[in-house]
Amino acid sequence: MLLHMFFPSKCVTCGSFGKVLCVSCKNSIKPVTQDSCIVCYRNSINGQTHEICKKTSFIDNALAIIKYTGAGRDWIGVIKYKRAYSTISEVVSIFPQSWIQKFKKITQYYTNALIVPIPLHKQREKARGFNQSKKIAKEFSKITNIPTSCVLLRVINTPQQAKQPTKNTRKENIKGAFILKQGQVVKNKTIILIDDLYTSGCTAQEAAKILKIAGAKTVLLFTLAHGKV
Ligand SMILES: [Zn+2]
Ligand SMILES: [Zn+2]
Fold first, then answer.
1. Which of 23, 56, 84, 207 is 20–30 Å from 174 (CA)?
2. Is residue 86 part of a domain?
3. Is residue 172 part of a domain?
4. Least confident window among 47-56, 81-90, 135-144
5. Ligand 1 centroid vs 80 CA: distance in angstroms?
6. What is the DSSP letter of 13?
7. How close is the Cα of 55 to the center of ligand 2, in Å?
8. pLDDT at 146 over 80
9. How far is the CA of 43 from the centre of ligand 1 (A)?
């Protein structure tokens, strides 16, 4: 009984017995085929924030690997709310080498880079037992050979962003939620923020703001999935 709670034996998207994510559902997760700007959602090369959009963005570049739709959406839901941790590295590993190469290529331009997972508030992390962003950060770190460091702290346990109806309420909801941990230095560094999903981008923008104020040179965002709101 206890084992079933921790290791669900039904596929989350189709309910078939066996794995948390069956082969058929895993194969129907759609990769992002066109990178876009985090501000205007229009196409952009390698997810660069357009020059004009940089006026309202603390993030210089945003990349995701899967679309937040269908099986991909259900899968992101499960890694966030259940202990289906192991499937993160499994899904990352099915992506074509061309995608992995792109992540590597973008990060090789940056020296003095650091991978930083978006933190959860300690109460929420304790209740959940894990922070999925830390696990994803570990996977991206393996791909890019860039070290991971948890330099940010979430000081406000904000209500869930997904429950906020508009971009403006999301922005307000997350305001002041992060601080730089004492003793951490990000001056002149390139920070690669990691999260499971970005939709409005408000959470990542708030974290990026703190990093830029502290002197970070460039802030990139890498997520597993990207969905518009
Ligand atoms: Zn399935
Ligand atoms: Zn733009």
1. 84
2. no
3. yes
4. 81-90
5. 17
6. T
7. 10
8. yes
9. 31
Q: Which ligand is nearest to the CA of 29?
A: 1
Q: Would the pLDDT of 86 be above 80?
A: no
Q: Is residue 18 part of a domain?
A: no
Rounded to whole angstroms, the Cα distance separating 20 from 14 reads 10
In terms of Cβ atoms closer than 10 Å to its own Cβ (0-12, 13-18, 19+), residue 214 is: middle
Q: In 3D, which of 102, 107, 115, 118 has the Cα closest to residue 34?
A: 102
Structural domain total, the chain: 1
CA 133 – ligand 1 centroid, Å:
23
- Domain of 50 in residue numbering reads as 31-66+97-226
Q: What is the pLDDT of residues 111-129, one digit of tens each?
A: 899 999 999 999 999 988 8
Report residues near ion ligand 2: CB below 5 Å: 37, 39-40, 50, 53
72 located within any domain: no
Q: How confident is the model at residue 95 (pLDDT cuts 50, 70, 90)?
A: confident
β-strand 178-180 against 152-154: which pairing, if any? antiparallel
Is the pLDDT confidence value at 191 over 60? yes
Fill in the DSSP letter of residue 85. Answer: T
Which phi and psi (to 5°) does residue 163 adopt? -90, -5
Whether the CB-CB separation of 117 and 223 falls below 8 Å is answered with no
| 179 pLDDT more than 60 | yes
* Residue 5: band (very low, low, confident or very high) from pLDDT cuts 50, 70, 90: low
Q: What is the CATH number of the domain that holds 114?
A: 3.40.50
Radius of gyration, CA atoms only, the chain? 17
